[in-house]
Amino acid sequence: MFQLAVLASGRGSNLKSIIDKLHLSNKNIKITCVISNKKEAKALKIAKKYKIPFYLIDENRYNEKEYEEKLIKTINLYNIDLIVLAGYMKILSPKFVNSFKDSIINIHPSLLPSFPGLHAQKQAIDYGVKISGCTVHYINNKVDAGPIIKQKAVKVEKQDDEASLSKKILKYEHQLLPATIELIAQGKVQINKYRTVSIKE
Ligand code: GRF
After folding, report:
1. ∠76-78-80 over CA atoms, to 5°?
2. What is the pLDDT of residue 168?
3. Among 23, 108, 137, 174, which one carries the catalytic annotation?
């Protein structure tokens, strides 16, 4: 059994896509816990609905060090194979990243390395790119800069604004993230020396 911990801070639509496409439909892959840093995160309600163990580690109640200790402790309650950041709006320390080396992935709503950080879709609209998209990548010690596993391009039309582009990209996020997790679970993803990733499809 390939076990996932999903970290999410908000709406949880990517969590829901992993539940639908993997947790409920692939007997070899299960979400073993959902963790959020925000008490209002809808992701926690989604986890509850699907009877997945969920944990709130309220970032307002702890300093950074305490927060991360609790996070590590919670993840270590399980035999986690992969940590999935699905709309997790908090930067992880190098200590955390190194303790789960090559086992943390993130979904980002742009074609990295373009437009890392917050409001990626607005950055893309403001810059005037004609193509944007989404990226699933491993986490390293720089924000949105780890080895790229998979990307999907989305055309930016002249009438697009931040909201419409976000909606278009999100639809592909919901396909790309579960598909990438499945490839990793099947042992088809390999991180090469430096930063390239090979996939046996
Ligand atoms: C997504 O656009 C994801 O790419 C970004 O944050 C958003 C989370 O959405 N990292 P949701 O909470 O999964 O609905």
Report:
1. 90
2. 98
3. 108
Q: Which residues pair with 137 in a beta bridge?
A: 106, 148
Angle at which helix 162-185 crosses helix 120-127, to 10 degrees, equals 130
Domains of the chain, first to last = 1-100 (3.40.50.170), 108-201 (3.40.50.170)
131-138 and 104-108 strand pairing: antiparallel
Please tell me the residue having the least CA distance from ligand 1 atom 5: 87
pTM of the model: 0.97
Amino acid at 138: Y
- CA–centroid distance, residue 42 to ligand 1 (Å): 12
Q: DSSP labels for 55-97?
A: EE--TTTS-HHHHHHHHHHHHTTS--SEEEESS--SPPPHHHH
87 lines ligand 1 (CB under 6 A): yes
**Using one digit for the tens of pLDDT, what is the confidence trace for 31-65?**
999 999 999 999 999 999 999 999 999 999 999 99
The parts of the chain modelled with pLDDT lower than 70 are: none
For residue 166, what pLDDT is reported?
A: 98
Nearest-angstrom CA–CA distance, 46 and 12 = 7
